[in-house]
Amino acid sequence: MSENKDLDKKITEEVETIIENTNCEAANEENNENASDESSFAAPMVDDVQEKLKSEKEKFLRLFADFENYKKRTMKERLSLMESANKELMVAILPTLDDFERAITELKKNEEHEAQLQGVYLIYNKLNSTVTQKGLAKVAVEKGDVFNAEIHEAITQITAPTEDLKGKIIDVIENGYKLGEKIIRFPKVIVGA
């Protein structure tokens, strides 16, 4: 961050120096022009000054454009870094979400564990809402959906129990998740053959 400020300061100082030099040169040339109006050298000097002024303006514009490009590039790099750090954290949390879902499924099987089920639900919902706020979402996949190799990962292929399930998802082994619009874990499914 301080490197960016230092670079911004250096660029600003260079631009100010260029502008001051251009203004000083123009003023000096104007004074010289007034002093020797009758001189036959006045016209070429004005041309030189105008040429130098044009050159300095081009330098200034290039420097300004480079600075703007630098600012845009560093902003993109910062956003990319934040997204990748967020992705790594979300990928690390996914097994915990899976464990909560398995625990809920098992606790639902036995009515004696109703109080435990409520406690697990509370913790799961809190964790799930937190990661959802950060952009994590489940990839929508259900039994009977058409298998798509771009968004599903086939674990195995079994004989379809009915003719209409051929090429379709028979079971979902593990949920898939996406962060924003990018899939960070593909849903693992069993496909009918």
Topology:
Layout: H1 2-35, H2 42-109, H3 114-133, E1 136-138, E2 153-158, E3 169-174, E4 177-179, E5 182-185, E6 188-192
Parallel strand pairs: 2-6
Antiparallel strand pairs: 1-4, 3-6, 4-5
Helix pairs in contact: 1-2, 2-3
Structural summary, described in words:
This protein is α+β, with helices and mostly antiparallel strands and 193 residues long. It folds into two domains: 2-86; 137-193, Roll (Nucleotide Exchange Factor Grpe, Chain A, domain 2), CATH 2.30.22. The protein has helices spanning 2-35, 42-109, 114-133, and strands at 136-138, 153-158, 169-174, 177-179, 182-185, 188-192. Strands 1-4-5 form a three-stranded antiparallel β-sheet. A three-stranded mixed β-sheet has the order 2-6-3, with no helix packed on it. A hairpin with a 2-residue loop joins strand 4 and strand 5. The mean pLDDT is 81.
Quick tags:
193 residues, alpha+beta, Nucleotide Exchange Factor Grpe, Chain A, domain 2, 2 domains, 3-stranded mixed sheet, 3 helices, 6 strands
Major pleated sheet = 3 strands, antiparallel
List SSEs in N-to-C order.
HHHEEEEEE
Output the strand order for the largest sheet: 1-4-5
Mean pLDDT: 81
Strand content: 5-15%
Number of E strands: 6
In which range does the helix fraction lie?
A: 55-70%
Radius of gyration, Cα only, in angstroms?
Answer: 34 Å
Shape: elongated
